[in-house]
Write a structure and sequence with these properties.
The complex is a heterotrimer of chains A (about 90), B (about 325) and C (about 525). Chain A has about 90 residues and is of the alpha+beta class. Chain A has two helices and seven strands. Chain A has a single domain, classed as Phenol Hydroxylase P2 Protein. In chain A, helix 1 packs across helix 2. Chain A is globular, with a radius of gyration of 12 Å. Chain C is mainly α and about 525 residues long. In chain C, about 60% of the residues lie in helices and about 5% in strands. In chain C, helix 6 runs antiparallel to helix 9. The chains are: A alpha+beta (about 90), B mainly alpha (about 325), C mainly alpha (about 525). The interface between B and C is large, with 95 and 100 residues.
Chain lengths: ~90, ~325, ~525
Amino acid sequence: MSTVFIAFQTNEDTRPIVESILADNPGSVLDEQPAMVKINAEGSLVIKRESIEERIGRDFDLQELQINLITISGHLDEDDDTFTLSWKN
Amino acid sequence: MQIDLRTVAIKPLRNTFDHLVERFGDKPASRYQEGSYNIQQESIFHYRPAWDADNVLFDKKRTKIQMKDWYALKDPRQYYYGSYTITRARQQDAAESSFEMIEDRGLAELVPADLKQMALDVLVPMRHVEWGGNMGNSYITAYGYGTVITQPCLYHAMDHLGVAQYLTRIGLVLDGPEALDTAKEAWMSGAMWQPMRRHVENLLVLQDWFEIFVAQNLVLEGLLNPMLYDYLDAEFSAKGATAISMMTRFMAEWSAETAKWVDAQIKVAAAESAENKAQLSAWVTQYRAETLDALAPIAKRSFGDKADELLADLTSEFNARCAKLGLAV
Amino acid sequence: MDMKANKKKLGLKEKYAHMTRGLDWETTYQPKEKVFPQATFEGIKVHDWDKWEDPFRLTMDAYWKYQAEKERKLYAVLDAFAQNNGHLGLTDARYLSAVKLFLTGISPLEYVAHRGFAAAGRNFPGVGPRVACLMQSIDEVRHAQTQIHALSNYNKFYEGFHAGATHQIERVWYLSVPKSFFDDAFSAGPFEWMIAIGFSFEYVLTNLLFVPFMSGAAYNGDMATVTFGFSAQSDEARHMTLGLECIKFMLEQDPDNLPIVQKWIDKWAWRGIRVLSLVATMMDYMLPKRVMSWKEAWEIYFEQNGGALFNDLAKYGIKVPECITQCTVDKEHISHQIWLTLCTHGHAMALHTWLPNADEMDWLSAKYPNTFDKYYRPRFEKLQELADKGERFYANTLPMLCQVCQIPMLFTEPDDPTKICYRESEYQGEKYHTCSDGCKHIFDDEPEKYIQAWLPVHQVYMGNCWPEGTDPTVEGFNPLAKYLEWCHIEDGKDNCDYEGSSDQANFAAWRGVATQNV
């Protein structure tokens, strides 16, 4: 199993996103660096629109993730409700 | 560490980069200037391109048009990436509200059936023409010379993609995904569209990038956009199809804006030399005839008996525009 | 009136497919070979362009919306940085040497990437990759411009930026390393371009370039660079998925593509790693406050992350490039070898160099326990000793360059770190020198291409690198001075040691004005 990761700029917009990811992906690991927050997970990582919406109290379009995104690793699959990173081996 | 500099003024050592001082004098430069001038490499290249071994990577010889200084072709809008995206974001925001309102209130249902059919027959297949415009302008971005012209051509290419997507959306709003299939079928085999498709495909194989600029951005857009977004739009508005006008507002604004940019390029290139002027005029004459042939059946569908008169009007307006730019057409 | 499909809300994938995929058509009035003349000459076989998967599904309206938001944020920070004299918050002005290297060595590459992706975005016969390449093309012009705009403020106060982002990359000897990399990629066909830039550079190596550079900037108080860097990275995520999708697509389309793709991966991994040795040097030597060593960054971002990638590609038959074996040896050496060379050629550099101080050498010993004290500390100490006596050593010739990567011949044999590695090839009766087995292999595979290399040092000695109107026969003619002038390197201001430079003096004086009641 290989590690996938996603990193965001550390700011007000990304705090609820990071919380949602950690809640939705048991076993994912938070790595806080200067100005950047990175989440590592084994095999796959899923970001759910609904979880973010619950935390911010408004509609959220997963494409908004791009504004604060720094980097990802793994294959990406995105639809209206989820943004998934995985290694398929 | 926090430093309080309320009363401290540090005098800068210089205003801007060397090449901008040489070009514009020793004063602070704008973001457009810093981001556009001389950022393309000029003369020293390591390897001949596998796809064009007679030229270097960025080569002035890829067009018959010649300029002493290619950076004379500046963009009057002074678009660099930031100002470009921020402008378009504002326009797309307005367009988005129009589409949302039309979708939420079902305003498309209020469009008279004949006008709705007209939009489906004329506007929706135009998405393919726009895609051709995207390809031509990407080509110029790749193989043109000098960032002040190649940069706005990429913005123009992306605009064409955006317009193609708005036209797609008009099809989706008025009818649904089937509208796109019907439009594609008409584009591929409908008699009305074949002259236009032939013309667009002919432009896809041109190699002189400035010739593409003239054929696509000046001539094709110079005749097509006013026909669609002035004349046809006036028909839509006048006859109760306001929803359609709302959905083409982006294009109307955009074509007026970009025409000014295109004009500025042609004007400067034509004024450079008699040879340029003759070449540009020859291209305009050639592509004007071809474009008008391609437009004829579409104008017929749009304006019926008035089509010939309308094309004559469009042509004389276009000729007047070219004359102002210093062309002999 | 029917109320059918238009009432159904389309999902992201479906909507994107309508918005892009259908735009293209099979041309019939002009043959496909004329519309897409670059599609086949590299030998890559594609049977069905519709099998291309778009990972990010951005339509233009969403692109404008999100990118404009990023731009507004970015320029707000840059304006604030300039208004508040943010440059005085740097740990030390010598940090700016790293930023000078970035502006003159990396920003012009962003520009070439912009043009190259525009070409790819015109040349692929499939609409999916074309749209993705065009978005990358416009992103890349963004990166070139935001970098220039961010660093423009430093140019107002410090030396070494004034030539701008492009003048020097065509002229300065060490900048032909990154330049030749991109010239090489752009002069190849569109598929090789995608492997070179889209895959090797963006996917495999970009994290090693940006993340350490940007963390280094954050650590050293350079908020302008952090901001453009992170803002650019948000686009890189899209670029990385494009690079990965592209390689999968080529491998899935036809088994005959595998050997071609493997050859390109091998070549571009090595080419890229050679370019990154400049980044290695920056991380280990040019940051007053260090984030991590090159070796550590290599282990995290290449060995671990790259390992996951190659595990994934193994199912297509892709093997880890052979050169990686040498990299595990090299990671302990390259930054020291390069900095030694730069320090001894500091008079011909467009940035300041310096000999590492005692603390810095201790840090290097700790990070490189196997190599630093044994091979490199004694050499730096020797140089320091000379400098203390007022005899700072500068080599009076320019170094010989590798015919492929164009780095001076300074790297050592894989099994003997005391012996410079030379490799030689013969082509059409001429001898060509390369710095490693990796570069020799690349040369031997396409000698007709690499003999064209415009090696700056050769050109200087042939007299091709002087300002127009230079007369080399006048008495007291100084070729180096004329070369520097041609490069827009101001002798005595932009080059040589940081210690004693006007940057050092100005920074100290301005900080004094800012913090004391003088």
